[in-house]
Amino acid sequence: QSVLTQPPSVSGALGQRVTISCTGSSSNIGAGYDVRWYQQVQGTAPKLLLNGNDNRPSGVPDRFFGSVSGTSASLAISGLQADDEADYYCQSYDSSLGAYYVFGSGTKVTVL
Amino acid sequence: EVQLVESGGGLQQPGRSLRLSCTASGFTFRDYALHWFRQAPGKGLEWVGFIRTQGYGGTTQYAASVKGRFSISRDDSKSIAYLQVNSLKTEDTAVFYCAIDSSYNGFDVWGQGTTVTVSS
Questions:
Q1: Are B84 and B73 contacting, i.e. CB atoms less than 8 angstroms apart?
Q2: Count of alpha carbons within 13 Å of A77, Cβ hemisphere only?
Q3: Are the Cβ atoms of B64 and A98 closer than 8 angstroms?
C-alpha cells in the first residue's frame, strides 16, 4: 500500500484540463518535503515532470503545473494532448521510520 | 550522453540470490548517490534503497520492506552500482530501475530497467 494516495484514473478530452491529487500526511507532504511528479508511458522508465520547486525540467511543457496545500499536492495538465496518456506518480520524502522516499499509488490518465 | 544501464535480470527460483548492475556513463558517477527502485507487474513505483557517495561515507539506506535481504554497493572505478538480492521471493518479481538525482530536485536520470522474474 502506497504512502501517498492518488486516484487510480482520470480522463479528459483533447484540449481539456485534468487534475491529479496526491494525498499524504504530516510525515511527508505536510512536513514540507518537496513533491515531485513523474510521467511513465507504458513500458518505459519514469520521467521527471516537475521537480521539488515546481520547476519543469528542460523539455517539459508549461501545460503541466503542480501545487501543494497542507498534506496534499496536485498536478494539473491543461490542453490535454494524446501523448499525455500515461501513468503519473507523485513522490516525496517521508520522515517516519524506514520510509524515506515514497511514491503515490499512481494515476492513469486517459485521453478521450 | 548521460546514461544509466541496468543488467542482470532474468528468471530465478525462489530462495536464490541475484546481483543486478547499474552502469553509468556520460557523467562523473562518483559524485552522485545512486538509488534503486522496483515496479511489480501492474503496480506502482517503490523506492528500494540508495548508496551515498564516498564523500558521505558510501553508506546505504533501505526501504523497510527490503531491509536485510537487499544490499547496495558501488565501484566508482568502474562507474557501476550493484543491487544484491538474497532469498528471492515470488513477490520480488518486478522491473528494477536505477536512478540519480543530479540536482537535488528529483530523480532526473533513470535507466531503462531490468526485469526480474522469481518463479519455480
A1: yes
A2: 30
A3: yes
Distance of CA A42 to the CA centre of its chain: 16
A69-94 confidence digits (pLDDT tens): 999 999 999 999 999 999 999 999 99
Residue A65: which of A40, A97, A35, A32 has the closest Cα? Answer: A35
Q: How close, in Å, is residue A13 to chain B by CA atoms?
A: 25
The side-by-side arrangement of strands in the sheet containing A72-77 is: A18-23, A72-77, A64-69
C-alpha cell at A93: 520524502
Place of cell 501545487: A67
Contact yes or no for A47 and B46 at CB 8 A: no
User: What tens digit of pLDDT does each residue of B40-89 get?
Assistant: 999 999 999 999 999 999 999 999 999 999 999 999 999 999 999 999 99
